[in-house]
Design a protein that fits this description.
Layout (H helix, E strand, L loop, with lengths): L1 H21 L12 E7 L5 H13 L4 E7 L15 H16 L3 E5 L7 E2 L9 E10 L23 E9 L4 E3 L19 E10 L14 E2 L5 H15 L8 E4 L13 H9 L7 H5 L5 H32 L3 E4 L8 H6 L3 E7 L24 H14 L5 E6 L9 H13 L4 E8 L28 H15 L3 E2 L3 E4 L2 H5 L14 H4 L4 H12 L3 E4 L1 H6 L1 E3 L2 E3 L9 E4 L7 H12 L3 E4 L12 H13 L4 E3 L2 E6 L2 E5 L3 H7 L13 E7 L2 E7 L6 E6 L6 E5 L6 E3 L2 E2 L2 E6 L4 E7 L12 E4 L3 E2 L4 E9 L6 E3 L12 H5 L1 E12 L6 E10 L1 E6 L2 E6 L5 E3 L7 E10 L3 H9 L31 E13 L2
Parallel strand pairs: 1-2, 1-14, 2-3, 3-10, 10-11, 11-12, 12-13, 13-14, 16-17, 16-20, 20-21, 21-24
Antiparallel strand pairs: 4-9, 5-8, 6-7, 6-8, 15-25, 18-19, 22-23, 23-24, 25-26, 26-32, 27-31, 28-29, 28-32, 30-31, 33-43, 34-43, 35-36, 35-37, 37-42, 38-41, 38-43, 39-40, 39-42
Helix pairs in contact: 2-3, 4-7, 5-7, 10-11, 16-17
GO molecular function: hydrolase activity
InterPro entries: Beta-mannosidase-like_N2, Galactose-bd-like_sf, Ulvan_degrading_GH
Keywords: Hydrolase, Signal
Amino acid sequence: MKIKNIVKLSVLCFAFGNLSAQNPWPKANNTAQPWTRWWWMGSAVDEKGLDKQLTTLSKAGFGGVEIVPIYGAKGFENQYLKYLSPEWMKMLQFTTDKAKSLKMGVDMAVGTGWPIGGPQVSENDAATKMIVQTYEIQPNEKFSEKIVLKDEKQKNLKTIQLDIVTAYNDKNETVILTDKINADGSLNWKPTSGKWIIYAVFVGKTLQKVKRAAPGGDGYTLDHFSPDATKDYLKTFDKAFGNSNYGIRSFFNDSYEVYNADWTADFKEEFKKRRGYDLAPYIKYLVEDNESDIAGRIKSDYRETMSELILHNFTENFTNWAHSKNSKNTNQAHGSPGNLLDLYAAVDIPESETFGSTKFDIEGLRRNVEDINTKEVPDINMLKFASSAANITGKPLISNESFTWLTEHFKTSWSQVKPEAEQIFLSGINHIFYHGTTYTPADVQFPGWLFYASTNFVPENSLWPNLKGLNSYIERTQSVLQSGKSDNEILMYWPIYDQWANPKGKDMAFKIHNIEKWLHPTVFYENLHKLGKSGYSLDMISDKMISEAQLENQNIQVSKNGGSYKVLIVPQLNYFPESTLKNILNLAQNGASVIFQNEPENVPGNFEVEKRRNELQSLWTKIPFQQDGNIKSAIFGKGKIVLSSDVEKALEYLKIEREKLTDTGLKFIRRKFDGGKYYYIVNHTSREINQNIPLNFIGKQVALMNPENGEFGLAETQNSSVKVQLKSGESLIIKASETLDNSISKWKYIEKTDAPIVLNQPWQLTFKEGGPELPKSKTLDKLQPWTNFTEDASTQSFSGTGVYSTSFKLKKNKADDFVLKFDKLYESAKVIINGQDAGIVWSLPYEINVGKYLKKGKNTIQIEVSNLMANRIRYMDQNKIQWRNYHEINFVNIDYKPFDASNSNVQPSGLDGEIQLIPIHYSK
């Protein structure tokens, strides 16, 4: 008997060992799961509410939270906690302890609301701007006016100072008058002749305060260009945190939204140190919209200086501070007047942002124009700034603030979220943060506390029961995208000096909200778009990164842990630093391949222009180009340099292979690991793709992995192609490996389907949970949404879960499996067959395999459908039931006007059309 038991145990151990070996999915930790921004309204949190919500989030598949305190709900003022007070820190400690017990992580914003700032920001450290006043001196006229600041808003500030005073005459002669102004503002200078205009530059303050601040977080926004301001600001956190990081994984800083901050107290000194000349004689070219060449050059130098100051004085100091706490830092660089690539690269976790809704061609995907912001559409190439910086410098995690204002309030389904998440993944981002979840006290009723610009990932959302479907999909996908390294083969130089040399305006912010101005019109963007569509994988690179790059096995590499690239592309440009050309030629000398789209002829900036331009041209003439058809090419040292206006032709010339799978319309991103590569492939076309697709790397064995349900199996391969079957809206992961694993079963390809069984018999409809009240049960002659029953008012206002039930007989059938196919589903469903949980249907196409749950003879099926929150909110607004009652911004719609759902249409809810049971046969 004992011997038999030992044998059984051995067999069991062997079986479990095989299960482990068979599974090609990477082991996932909590960073693979989605995280969510967690707004603490008024910081009115307590242990009971924190425990409840963290536990609920964990069960739904969240890996972590990002705490951002904001304004509070009215009526709860006595529960507000002051930011960073001992009581607040106690709640933070409880949060991180509870999260740790749930194997979740906790990040935290370094401030409340946004942008960074607060009560610790003194007037001296506050965001700073230049205030320019002009004066005229007529010939033979005594100038009696005082050069003093006239701005009434600045009058009471103690830090205002006169920084630069420069006079210009009609011959454009210049006199610096800064040291000729007396204490009372009188001018101690008189011109000998001619008309003069005086430009006086004062150091002023923007007076901007933190937006949406929490109690204890109100105050001025920070001067990001001052190292002292940054260090002073972080001292408040040093005091609150002491020697502990309180369990914070990463400290977070939101996007740069500091308006009119275009100066700092020591800017003119920093400018001279960094650019090599005094700005004072040229100040009029900076402050006016003069279309001249010199104006563009002065502004280029000014913008480059601003970029360096925010990089060195804020971003790098922020990173060093987080490391002193044994934590990481996360930073959104976009919106700032700096080189985004360098700013993203200077932190541990670069974070991008998506705002608005993308138009996808997926069959059946809802995108009602009245429910979206048509002015802003997420752009995959904007997201690539963050992923490029991370890939090049070897940062393993790239995060994204995701789904901000995806649709109008309460109208976002998980099926609409999925393709937006896929586009984020395709950009190279692998650590999604939802935007977001609002903390709600345990005893607050529906709809709980809500944030005004969010897709509501809150437990009160009627779609919550099926959120695990979306979260599991993201977890599986991110487990792959966080494995190994990025496998992009191309670097493309970002010609930022073409932007900086624009003679219009003054400071230049690279925002996600105005890419139609600074990104879309460029040849750089045109190349990004075309090459991505053609099947090339690329990252963007900055001048600074090029200066740090080296050659490793004929490939360009900036960081030991970063990506390795076959070619560098310099797109068509007007301004190119001679130092960058010199660095590129050094790379070519050592074996790099480089493509220029045009001959660089001009240098940026205003320092020793002729000397530097001559050096640029001298370097260029050293390249021994030979005409080769429509292309000029040169062997340069160990490398190759190609000159061609057609970048794709140049890539073909250099034998850089594209992934031809994009010819089918499929999109992909590729990762490499020891001994193989992952391909993440998405079908955003309107058609099914059922064919062999070519891959540049096949290896010895190819496994297919379904990120929606976790299934996997060995693929059919032929030459250098893989057979895939992807319906519109589906995705797939391909694992191509040099290692053989014979324990993995074959992938189940559908060879044919039999005539569908239409479940058109009567159905019972009951209501499981939701409100404001449960509608009465109904017997349906045919499937239809419960909102069709307009005579029953409760069906029009109900948000929650309705259960459609029926039974049917199944004759003996030789099908290998059955697919349950929904015609129309509003919005997601849990399927139960013969009492067994068969899974969640939440994304297009609305299908699920159910064969293993069916039996010969009578079968029962229950479909638990969860709908949107919209109908219940409509009911509450029509009946004047108070649910939005917040300080500051008290709930606005997608156009930032007061939100009111009273006149909105009832959103269809439940099932509609046919439900089919389709017998399928797999190829043998």
